[in-house]
Amino acid sequence: MKSTLSIFLMLLAFTATSQTGWQGKFEQMGNMLPTPNQYRTGSGEPGPSYWQQKADYKIKLELDDENQKITGSEVVTYYNNSPSALRYLWVQLDQNVRQKDNLSSLTSGTRGIPDNVTSLRTTQAQSALGDTGFDGGFKLMAVKDTKGNDLDYVVNFTMMKINLPEPLESGDSFSFNIDWWYNINDRGLIGGRSGYEYFKEDDNYLYTIAQFYPRMAVYDDFNGWQNKQFIGSGEFALTFGDFEVEITVPSDHIVASTGELQNPKDVLTSKELQRYERAKESFDKQVFIVTEDEAKKKEKSRSSKKSTWVYHAENVRDFAFASSRKFIWDAQAVKVGEKTPLAMSYYPKEGNPLWERESTKAVINTLINYSEMTIDYPYPVAISVHAASIGMEYPMICFNFGRPRPDGTYNDFVKTRMVSVIVHEVGHNYFPMIINSDERQWAWMDEGLDSFMEYMTMKRFYPDLPYNSNTPEAIIPYMKGSKDYMRPIMTNPEQSLQLGPEAYSKPSAALVVLREEVMGPELFDAAFKEYSRRWAFKHPKPADFFRTMEDASAVDLDWFWKGWFFSTDNVDVEVADVKWFKIKGENKSLEGEVKAQAGNLGGNSQTNEDNPFYGQPQELSLNDDQVRGEYRGEIDNEAIKQRFAGKNVYQITFKNNGGLITPITLEWTYKDGSKEIEKIPAEIWRRNEAEVTKLFVKDKEVDNVVFDPFKQLGDVNTENNSFPQGESRNSRFDQFKKN
């Protein structure tokens, strides 16, 4: 037994050598995560008492194509499944973000007008000066109970509080009516997630309509009411429910919508109806329900009649639709598990020939890959609608950019952007439409997870396109930027300084690192699928994701979440010091030592081009040892000597200059030209997060060694990644990509 003094001295020695490199990055997250309870467990799955609310809608609306206006009436039935009585309800009025003096315009800052600027573009001026000249926002005509009694309500920017006549007890429901109208915004003039695009040449409109109805805010076990204002960046927190929606439009319009069409015989021609039914059985090629020639003919006419399209949707969190007489419409069935949803595309002639070639194919590829990695797609349709300069998602339907030149030509760049945005927006059916996270608070939980899945789908189905987004390599320019203009992933989107990297590409890159370098595909994929299964049609929070990924894999990832999601650290590992030893064997007599100091790693290659590890290694002798203490056995010293005789030992010191804990992936190149990839888990930094030294035993003599050879870890400074310094990895990386 060691004495107390000797143990103290050992601890003191360890502290002296390692304390300066300790920042708590491997400590458990502890109170950074909420305490598990009966609603959300420590394993990351819903607890035995988990509950969530429900809101059903019956909506009737009319789209005025002459005045670009929507008038609607809805009946909302709200079910209180919580254990608490509710004295009021919160309803989201997202169109109010376009009201005059809305919270977004009142609180938007500006860089100011530079001294030497004497003019502004008109659209730039209306944005900077906070006056679009547009009469936006909901015009509420009535808020009543189902008996016709007025309800007491207060509108606070984009939120409306309805004071209930009596508390809504646990297990009860309450129904109420709202009548409203609003002017539809011109997206080309003032932007917006929904609105219309005007086509001057043929005097027609294409409407992509969303956030068009007052909708229930989320009330849950985590926040109570999620009634944060809609300022513009933070998207939506919504409650699941069933929808019955009647959409009245000019009779020559085609309507694409969330849900299943209930009355195709009433709104389609006999030819369109026949094609629509045929598409449901067509798995090998798309069926054109409305052809381009037919759409062109409609552009020249104006029907004076109206048609009402009836759609039903079950267990969805939202509802959106698109309408235009310009729509070409194609569809193809896809087999997903036990279901055969219709993949459909709606687009004007301006999208062709690109859209008829690629859109529905991209929808199908997305459903296949996402279903395999999460859960089988549960809905009857998945729709891609073409609209200029937008990518926006809703249950079963999304609006996507990607338009060829006016003469119909396009290059691979346009095609890649168009295909990838369709994959991304269709993919949002999973995150957050099914795995229903709170977008208003945690943008990365839908955008980041979906961007990762977009990358996985593009990698699988489109390997020949010039796609290089959402990867560790792609975020290097952001990660090496100024920390003053950076926020952690775990930041509310309204406070984010660079929403694209911080909500989309950095979380995706983190998951690529997690899958490829930390957990491995087998463990990651199983855990990711388990998270999707656990939280499908529920309301997960960040801790539920973090905990599930660990629970389903037996990989401790607290260091990973803390570094990638809670900090602005980056990966910058320096190969700072290299020594070469050789184990002494029979007839071996070697002397000398090779040592490279940080900042002078390239010196060796100048001494001997053919042998960067120049000179002779330092000789290491193995001396006999014996068993100590109470053991009675003997050590076979000769066997140990023989096992290591002649081996090359390379001692490498790595410095963590960027602060982000990372695995270490090395590419060894030997003097005979052969190569070896070696991966070291991130736990190597657990005792000293700033600097580690490790011995590597090799049979062959090494010519050079490179950290992160395939740019999978996002290292921001490749100049210090290799020994000898300056050894280029680009040629090897390019060759790897070709192979």
UniProtKB/TrEMBL annotation:
Keywords for this protein: Aminopeptidase, Hydrolase, Protease, Signal
Bias (Basic and acidic residues): 729-739
Domain (Peptidase M1 membrane alanine aminopeptidase): residue spans on this chain: 408-564
InterPro entries reported in the protein's UniProt record: Peptidase_M1_dom, Peptidase_M4/M1_CTD_sf
Coiled-coil segments on the chain, per record: none
Biased composition (Polar residues): 716-728
A GO molecular-function descriptor: zinc ion binding
Protein's name according to its UniProt entry: Aminopeptidase
Organism: Roseivirga spongicola
